[in-house]
């Protein structure tokens, strides 16, 4: 009798531990599109490593400019060549992978000059990449799942208006528009902070790299201080953003070896109800390092 009771107790404990281990199970998000030689979009999603793929970038828009997509050598949007990506986007979505378009980036010509400008950009994004209609959809008929704000230049004004307008267009059009942002880890973010404070963002993948003062190698206290500030924002899930490789081309600082991430870093943050997982820059570097495969079962 005692043996059976002990066995039942052990089983209950095991089930509880399994539940706790999965209740904050995370996802991996990856940026794709800015490097020659990375796997195709379809192969990226077929790997099974990622729940989110972020197409990078739309680096030109706003202030009266004609928006322009840039997916490096993957395709030429000026000739309509990127419409061929529609099939791959649909393939990703059929596998349950969310595909978002990242606007901005570290280099580019973008910004918003007024609430009206934000409204025009929102309408362009809705009609050309989301649930609206246009004769010039750069990625063809595929309907993306949302828009990622990787705002690193161009001023901090009116991004909140853009976020509000995008969500409103989705609601009115009967299509959920996911919003994500990729702020730097110093809090609050110089560019994205105002938009994130609207409470409209579903995912925030914080760049804990190229920011020496708050990345993990600055010390546990500095890292956790930044992380705790970010999980306090009114957003859905918060992701730990990292370079996928130790290559200085991936990031100047902030790389965390896979074994260190899984044994020392993730245990510190997975207890947060807002923990969402890990974001990686980028597919090109992940192809060469195998980083996502090394961490996936721990995220």
Automatic annotation (TrEMBL):
Keywords: Carbohydrate metabolism, Chitin degradation, Disulfide bond, Glycosidase, Hydrolase, Polysaccharide degradation, Signal
InterPro entries documented for this protein: Cts1-like (IPR045321), GH (IPR017853), Glyco_hydro18_cat (IPR001223), Glyco_hydro_18_chit_AS (IPR001579), Glycosyl_Hydrlase18_Chitinase (IPR050542)
Pfam families according to UniProt: Glyco_hydro_18
Entry-linked CDD domains: GH18_hevamine_XipI_class_III (cd02877)
Taxonomic superkingdom: Eukaryota
Residues in the signal sequence: 1-25
GO aspect biological process, one term: polysaccharide catabolic process
Molecular-function GO term, any one: endochitinase activity
Keyword Signal (UniProt): yes
GO cellular component: extracellular region
Main enzyme class: hydrolase
The enzyme's E.C. designation: 3.2.1.14
Catalytic activity: Random endo-hydrolysis of N-acetyl-beta-D-glucosaminide (1->4)-beta-linkages in chitin and chitodextrins
Protein's recorded name: chitinase
């Amino acid at each position: 009798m005692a043996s059976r009771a002990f066995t039942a107790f052990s089983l209950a404990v095991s089930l509880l531990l399994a539940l706790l281990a999965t209740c904050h199970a995370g996802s991996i998000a990856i940026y794709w599109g800015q490097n020659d030689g990375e796997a195709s979009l379809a192969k990226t999603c077929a790997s099974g490593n990622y729940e989110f793929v972020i197409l990078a970038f739309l680096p030109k828009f706003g202030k009266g400019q004609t928006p322009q997509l840039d997916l490096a050598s993957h395709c030429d949007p000026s000739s309509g060549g990127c419409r061929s990506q529609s099939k791959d986007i649909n393939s990703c979505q059929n596998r349950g992978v969310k595909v978002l378009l990242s606007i901005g980036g570290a280099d580019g010509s973008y910004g918003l000059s007024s609430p009206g400008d934000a409204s025009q950009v929102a309408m362009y994004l809705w009609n050309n990449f989301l649930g609206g209609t246009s004769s010039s959809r750069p990625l063809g008929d595929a309907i993306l799942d949302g828009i990622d704000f990787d705002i690193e230049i161009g001023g901090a004004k009116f991004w909140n208006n853009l976020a509000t307008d995008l969500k409103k267009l989705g609601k009115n059009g009967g299509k959920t528009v996911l919003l994500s942002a990729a702020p730097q880890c110093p809090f609050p973010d110089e560019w994205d902070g105002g938009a994130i404070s609207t409470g409209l963002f579903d995912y925030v993948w914080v760049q804990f790299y190229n920011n020496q003062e708050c990345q993990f190698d600055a010390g546990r206290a500095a890292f956790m201080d930044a992380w705790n500030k970010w999980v306090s924002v009114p957003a859905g899930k918060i992701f730990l953003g990292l370079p996928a490789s130790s290559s200085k081309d991936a990031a100047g600082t902030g790389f965390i070896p896979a074994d260190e991430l899984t044994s020392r870093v993730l245990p510190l943050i997975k207890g947060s109800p807002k923990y969402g997982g890990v974001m990686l820059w980028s597919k090109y570097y992940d192809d060469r390092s195998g980083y996502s495969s090394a961490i996936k079962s721990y995220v």
